């Protein structure tokens, strides 16, 4: 079983290894892509974590908003119940004709109302806007007129307004300070306006709600009226409280929705995560807005570490991949050089006989399939043994190299094959070339070699020359390729026997189905 698995893995990996080994640049590019992916995947995961961090903070802020809203709702409902009780008692007195009783006679209506930490006092105001009754420490304010206050005017003009919560203002009571008024209308027996009952709630009440909320500046927690008036803020500022943010784009967005979350820059240019919620049944918005820097502080630290590690490993993988690619490229160059050396004659730099045989086999089959002519030239340096004996083997090697270079320069087509066949013999294969064309090439070779004007006292003309045999054919089925070389070799001997420094050519006879191996 294991051997089968190894065999399958080997068969699957082998093509990849082969492709990689033959294409070094592909290895470098693939390594770069892998490195990029290795860097991007953890960074992408960290980016997803960023959204999770923001979502977690959003949930936390929503919980804080819910806590603030619940506190506001519970306290103001409690205040409203007290107001309603006060209004009921006052209207009961009026129904019995006691609406003009002195304050001392009204003391009973306040007995059931508890003292509140952030409610300075509770008042009853007549239809003229004059305070006619107050709870305990507010008695010094009896006789004070509040007919110009919005909480009085609204109740007077709007019989069905119910509970009215005013904007923050500076109280006229002797205690002083910033307060908000909660008021309800008092009706006479006939339903006409008889006055109001109201409480003054110090703004410290709202700031108390923020005590349990841990939020570092410049993060903010705010309570707004639904018209954009700031009631309370953390951190506290006398300048901010009582001001309006109705023109702020952030307020416009939260006022339209009533509840939700948005990321935006405040008036101070700091980006925050704003979570807001309208308090049910009351004209308040609770807003919790930590800065994005605080929200993402830990995430940014982890992201920087992850980014540094990703970049490091990405660079390491990329460098490693390209070093491997360069090594493979050098290996291919060495292999190519070795292959070239294995296919090349070291002295003449022409193809060697083994390479010629392989090319000849391929070109012969190609010519047979297409029924196209093919020609072969056998070239031999005349009186070369005598030249070696006269001038020495070193000079003989120089002559071989010069003649080889001359032949290679004369036979210029890329499909032609020029090779050293052995000793002072050379062979030229001319695919898709008939006898007349091959004979012209052979004559040009002979003429160019003689034009080298290399001295050879052993030759009858005193110069290095060559004799050439040229044979051509269109390969027939069953015909052996060696027959073409044998015919060229035979024609070479005829050229030598006829006086050397000449070309002999002839087509291969159709009946030549057997070949004698050339020398």
TrEMBL record:
<dbReference type="GO" id="GO:0005886">
    <property type="term" value="C:plasma membrane"/>
</dbReference>
<feature type="transmembrane region" description="Helical">
    <location>
        <begin position="29"/>
        <end position="48"/>
    </location>
</feature>
<dbReference type="InterPro" id="IPR029787">
    <property type="entry name" value="Nucleotide_cyclase"/>
</dbReference>
<protein>
    <recommendedName>
        <fullName>diguanylate cyclase</fullName>
        <ecNumber>2.7.7.65</ecNumber>
    </recommendedName>
</protein>
<dbReference type="InterPro" id="IPR054327">
    <property type="entry name" value="His-kinase-like_sensor"/>
</dbReference>
<dbReference type="InterPro" id="IPR043128">
    <property type="entry name" value="Rev_trsase/Diguanyl_cyclase"/>
</dbReference>
<dbReference type="GO" id="GO:0052621">
    <property type="term" value="F:diguanylate cyclase activity"/>
</dbReference>
<dbReference type="GO" id="GO:1902201">
    <property type="term" value="P:negative regulation of bacterial-type flagellum-dependent cell motility"/>
</dbReference>
<keyword id="KW-0472">Membrane</keyword>
<dbReference type="GO" id="GO:0043709">
    <property type="term" value="P:cell adhesion involved in single-species biofilm formation"/>
</dbReference>
<feature type="domain" description="GGDEF">
    <location>
        <begin position="372"/>
        <end position="508"/>
    </location>
</feature>
<dbReference type="Pfam" id="PF00990">
    <property type="entry name" value="GGDEF"/>
</dbReference>
<dbReference type="InterPro" id="IPR050469">
    <property type="entry name" value="Diguanylate_Cyclase"/>
</dbReference>
<keyword id="KW-1133">Transmembrane helix</keyword>
<feature type="transmembrane region" description="Helical">
    <location>
        <begin position="304"/>
        <end position="328"/>
    </location>
</feature>
<dbReference type="Pfam" id="PF22588">
    <property type="entry name" value="dCache_1_like"/>
</dbReference>
<dbReference type="InterPro" id="IPR000160">
    <property type="entry name" value="GGDEF_dom"/>
</dbReference>
<keyword id="KW-0812">Transmembrane</keyword>
């Amino acid at each position: 079983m294991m051997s089968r698995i190894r065999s399958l893995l080997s068969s699957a990996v082998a093509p990849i290894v082969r492709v990689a080994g033959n294409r070094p640049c592909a290895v470098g590019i693939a390594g770069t892509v892998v490195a990029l992916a290795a860097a991007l995947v953890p960074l992408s995961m960290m980016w997803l974590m960023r959204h999770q961090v923001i979502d977690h903070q959003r949930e936390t802020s929503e919980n804080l908003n819910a806590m603030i809203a619940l506190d506001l709702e519970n306290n103001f409902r409690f205040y409203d119940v007290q107001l309603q009780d006060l209004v009921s008692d006052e209207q009961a007195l009026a129904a019995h004709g006691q609406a003009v009783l002195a304050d001392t006679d009204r003391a009973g209506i306040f007995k059931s109302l508890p003292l509140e930490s952030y409610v300075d006092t509770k008042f009853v105001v007549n239809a003229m806007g004059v305070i006619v009754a107050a709870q305990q420490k507010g008695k010094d304010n009896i006789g004070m007129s509040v007919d110009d206050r919005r909480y009085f005017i609204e109740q007077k003009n709007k019989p069905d307004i119910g509970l009215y919560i005013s904007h923050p203002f500076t109280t006229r009571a002797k205690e002083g300070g910033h307060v908000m008024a909660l008021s309800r209308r008092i009706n006479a027996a006939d339903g006409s306006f008889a006055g109001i009952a109201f409480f003054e709630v110090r703004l410290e009440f709202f700031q108390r709600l923020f005590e349990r909320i841990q939020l570092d500046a410049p993060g903010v927690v705010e309570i707004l009226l639904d018209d954009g008036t700031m009631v309370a803020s953390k951190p506290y500022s006398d300048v901010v409280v009582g001001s309006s943010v109705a023109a702020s784009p952030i307020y416009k967005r939260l006022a339209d929705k009533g509840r939700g979350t948005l990321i935006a820059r405040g008036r101070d240019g700091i980006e925050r995560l704003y979570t807001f919620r309208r308090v049910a049944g009351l004209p308040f918005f609770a807003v919790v807005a930590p800065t994005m820097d605080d929200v993402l502080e830990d995430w940014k630290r982890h992201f920087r570490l992850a980014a540094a590690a990703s970049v490091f490993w990405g660079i390491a993988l990329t460098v490693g991949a390209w070093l491997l690619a360069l090594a493979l490229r050098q290996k291919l160059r060495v292999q190519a050089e070795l292959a070239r050396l294995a296919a090349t004659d070291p002295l003449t730099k022409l193809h060697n006989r083994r390479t010629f045989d392989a090319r000849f086999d391929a070109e012969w089959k190609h010519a047979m399939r297409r029924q196209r002519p093919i020609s072969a030239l056998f070239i031999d340096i005349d009186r070369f043994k005598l030249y070696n004996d006269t001038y020495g083997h070193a000079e003989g090697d120089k002559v071989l190299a010069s003649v080889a270079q001359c032949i290679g320069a004369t036979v210029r087509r890329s499909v032609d094959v020029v090779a050293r066949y052995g000793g002072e013999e050379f062979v030229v294969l001319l695919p898709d070339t008939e006898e007349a064309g091959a004979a012209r090439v052979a004559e040009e070779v002979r003429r160019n070699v003689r034009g080298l004007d290399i001295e050879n006292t052993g030759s009858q003309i005193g110069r290095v020359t060559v004799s050439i045999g040229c044979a051509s054919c269109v390969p027939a089925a069953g015909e052996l390729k060696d027959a073409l070389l044998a015919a060229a070799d035979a024609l070479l001997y005829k050229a030598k026997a006829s006086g050397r420094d000449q070309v002999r050519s002839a087509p291969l006879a159709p009946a030549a189905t057997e070949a004698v191996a050339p020398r």
